[in-house]
Amino acid sequence: MSDTLVLYKSKRGASRQYAEWIAETLKADLHEASGFLARDFDRYAKIIYCGGLYANSINGIKVIAKNRARVSGKKIIVVACGLSYPQIESSVLRVVNGLAKKLPEPLHKNVRLFLVRGSITYSELRFFENFILKMLENTLRKKDPQTYSPEEKEMADTLGRDFSFVNRESLQPILDYYKTL
User: Fold this and answer.
1) Are 139 and 63 members of one domain?
2) pLDDT band at 114, cuts 50/70/90?
3) pTM metric for this prediction
4) Is 162 helix (H, G, I), strand (E, B) or coil?
5) In this structure, are 62 and 136 located in the same domain?
6) Contact in structure between 10 and 159 (CB atoms under 8 Å)
7) E strands, the chain, where?
8) Between the CA of residue 12 and those of 52, 67, 74, 118, 159, what are the distances in Å?
9) What's the Rg (C-alpha) of the chain?
10) Whole-number Å distance between alpha carbons of 57 and 44
11) Is the domain of 48 the same as that of 13?
12) Region 33-56: what's the mean pLDDT?
């Protein structure tokens, strides 16, 4: 048994893939969040949580929030998997603010957040997700393409097409940080 837990919640597989790669690399224990027992947090000194990013909220992060007494004082890394650029400060800030709303004050200050890029398969989207993407597409159509940010340009180029940005190399900053714990 490892002193590190990799916990994940994944709708379509990208967060699960990142969690599996992290667990494999670190020789850590891997568990899906919905089947994880709260008392089992006690066995770990370090927790890495991977979840999909939806409207700046991390899928399943409530498992950490609900168990704040059990995870308090532990080293916690949160990996948010979405379509936003991790290099763009405004993207990161939106996720940080969303995380702060979900985790109690003392807990969210003890969390190190990383963003990684995910994937999209249009045939798997639910009605509301399709609706949001249609709204984004309509907003982009109203703008002059010359004024697009890099994120908007990529969105405009990929809207309506399946794509994946999932890659193992994007985990390197997380693994480097883990080594400092």
Assistant:
1) no
2) very high
3) 0.85
4) coil
5) no
6) no
7) 4-9, 29-32, 46-54, 57-58, 75-82, 111-117, 119-120, 163-164
8) 9, 25, 29, 10, 18
9) 17
10) 25
11) yes
12) 92
Structural domains counted in the chain: 2
- Are 108 and 141 members of one domain? no
Q: Which amino acid is at 34?
A: S
DSSP 181: -
Task: Dump the DSSP string for 68-118.
Answer: HHHHTTSEEEEEEEESS-TT-HHHHHHHHHHHHHHS-HHHHTTEEEEEEE-
- Strand, coil or helix: 58: strand
**Residues ≥6 apart with Cβ < 8 Å to 95:** 53, 56, 58, 80, 82, 84, 113, 115
The whole-number average pLDDT for the span 102-117 is 82
Strands 4-9 and 46-54, by their bridges, are parallel
Whose tokens are 């609900």? That residue is 66
CA–CA–CA angle 12, 154, 173 (5° rounding): 65
Dihedral of CA atoms 124, 127, 128, 133 in degrees, nearest 10, equals: 70
If one compares 171 and 133, the residue with the highest pLDDT of the two is 171
Could you tell me if 113 and 130 lie in one domain? no
